[in-house]
Amino acid sequence: MDKKEICKQPNRVLASGRIFECQCESPGHCPLYNQTMGPTLHSKCQHSQGFRDTYLYMKRQQQAERPEVQRQRRKKRAEEKKAGKQFDLAIEELKEEGISLNEIEASEGLGDTVEKVLSKFGITSKLIEKIAGIKECRCQERKKWLNKIFPYGNNKKETE
Length: 160
What we know:
Strand order of the largest sheet: 1-2
Order of helices and strands: HHEEHHHHHH
Oligomer: single chain
Structural class: mainly alpha
């Protein structure tokens, strides 16, 4: 019998449903599991009856659950694709509004970036002071603190 015939399921599986031994000579595609077996899985398959039994059981469980699992995976991929498109649209809108990476790269740190992004949406320290009903919001202090804690690049300029 050639290698392909040996690896076919009827030649490897006993009536009890157990695989009596791995006949694959090297890692690669396993026709029984219909999957690529790397060196680690191939070694376990060749040397452990318990591994073969457990692996075959898991593959059968996966096949029984396959339609529902496939639906869930398709739904998740569709949601991820939709989120990606929304993210791309948001970036395009920000570009149209005049926000560019050049502005962010010119920032000293995170504080500058936060200020620039918020100001593009009309949120300024004066607006915060007006809404909160305070005389000073200490936004500049927070900006300096964020710049010092999260600086960009090799910029080690001291902020006071």
